[in-house]
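Appendix B, example 12.
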Amino acid sequence: MKPLGIGIVGTGSIAGVVATAIRSASNAKLVGASSRSLERAEAFAGEHGAAVAAQGHRDLISSPVVEAVYVATPTAAEEPIVLDALRAGKHVLADKPFVSAASAVTMASQAESLGLVLMDATHFVHHPRTAAVLDAIPERVGEPLALHASFFAPFDDRSNIRFDPELEPMGAVGDLGWYTARAVIEYLQPTEPVRRVHAVANRDAQTGAVVRAAGVIEFGDSRTLTFEFGFEGGTFASELRLMGTRGQLSIDDFVIDFGALMYDEAERRDAGYSVRSGWGGRPTGEFLEVSTDRPADVRMVEAFAALARDGTEERRAAWRTSLVETQRLVDRIMGAC
């Protein structure tokens, strides 16, 4: 099958990461890039081997070789670009977060009405560990009761876009809190809506951006999420614990598996998860490895391309729903901050 031709809107660091993933994917091809500056678009396209360089997203999506786009712009600018791409008949992979759940619903509804794919660019859900954990939950965890998710990534450069509320209005809530919310959708799977949210947040004194937050969400079925995330901290850390009626399942690198960060083959290890139950388990529990031959970001691109080529409406709807429901939780966290 012909690889899906993907163009990238935006030339920032995350765009470079996904460009590399597209080039490594078995069923996709990077064909173009756009930026507000034609010079930057040409430099990015040249670096990543794309044939089309465009000034502005409209010129990119008008190209016949562009069948789909990855939108890697600031959150504040994203919705109109996504809608323009969908109206032009292009499938869309959109960087998270979104300005609001209402915006997410608007984009998802447009994609549905046009029979196109809209997927959020969340890497970890495509790692085979996610499917392995879901398979293990009934036996190892039982009925899920409580999820704790933590994500810290140290940033202190106030010139970074993360500290600009005009471009990234949710700060750390959208950037890092998104993953704690998405973990709810994937692993806790509450059966009732949110009952209440309590959060505390720290804002940057100079910019007003949310830089750290912690709190709890209670759902109508009494399941709970406790979360913490922020730019303040001395290390990259992403940890998850799911407690249920049978036991506990833990992941110490749920956002980006440590193995994917190890460039020295001698230091690489398979991703996995730990389980424990009863009174007598060792503190570290039993570790179960989940091997993968491709990083999660490459798998994400391949899943997107497969969905665009021949995905069923049921599968496409599932991805749209996950996107919207994650943003609903992010909105609730932001509202409590």
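Residues 313-336 form the longest helix (24 residues). The first strand starts at residue 4 and ends at 9.
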